[in-house]
Amino acid sequence: MAYSALAGICIPPFCPTKPRGTGYLGKVRVVSDLATRSLYLCVGVREDVSSFLPAVLRGGVDLVQLREKSLPDEARRDAARRMIPVCRDFGVPFIMNDSAELASEVGADGVHVGQEDASVAHCRELLGDESIVGLSTHADEEFDAGLAQPVTYLSAGPIVETPTKLGRAPTGRDYAARAQARSRVPVFVTGGVTDQNVADLVGAGLRHFVVVRYLTESSAPERAARALRHALDEALATAPPA
User: Is 27 known to be catalytic?
Assistant: First the structure.
């Protein structure tokens, strides 16, 4: 593989309190180091975002996506403008879902698109070479096609059935492992990731994980994020290169 998922991993309590980044004013320059980021939160618009987002970032989330399918652009725009300064403060990239135009407008670090959304080529043309462009995949042929495009990362899954992907049949863990094994870019695994199963997933060769309900439905999101981060870092520290 062309990158190491183990590079830059730290083990508590020796981790810095904030990941590297450019701070509040500039975009986070992470295209070259995205392989070292392994805990990717997808979250919708929340009234408590001003407390929720810093909590999970303190807990170890190192990539954030605003994934909101049901609200108009105005609400997504407003939410992004509340979330971006927080992410900047922690040096964590902020990704918009679906719309490269919105990502450009709010100054996001990139965009994530699905198979039925705008093309990767369109996103790359609009956002430029330094922005993050991610693409969802659910089958081997989609993954192979994705590798031929100018993506920063690919996602694979959901590996189990999940209410965040209604109507989407699970791909199974083997699909994600196959994708990881032949990828030139980081592969983020979606579907049911928790502190209880992440070590097994790392043992299957997986290295990067999307988390949704485990954090968004938690009554103690910072504590949950820390538990997941700790379990993930421990597993990655002893895992062979993917």
Answer: no
Asked if pLDDT for residue 1 goes beyond 50, the answer is no
Domains of the chain: 37-238 (3.20.20.70)
For the question of residue 32 being annotated catalytic, the response is no
In whole angstroms, how far apart are CA 162 and each of 45, 165, 193, 231? 19, 6, 10, 22
**165, 168, 178, 213: which one is catalytic?**
165
**Helix ranges, the chain (H):** 49-59, 73-90, 100-106, 120-127, 140-147, 173-181, 198-203, 213-216, 221-238
Which listed residue (99, 131, 136, 218) is catalytic?
Answer: 136
The count of other CB atoms within 10 Å of the CB of residue 128 is 11
What is the distance between the alpha carbons of residues 13 and 239, in angstroms, rounded to a whole number?
20
Instruction: Classify 87 in phi/psi space as left (phi over 0), alpha (psi -120 to 50) or beta.
Output: alpha
Is the Cβ–Cβ distance between 109 and 95 less than 8 Å? yes
β-partners of residue 132 are: 110
**Is residue 218 among the annotated active site residues?**
no
**Over the stretch 173-231, which tens digit does the pLDDT of each residue have?**
999 999 999 999 999 999 999 999 999 999 999 999 999 999 999 999 999 999 999 99
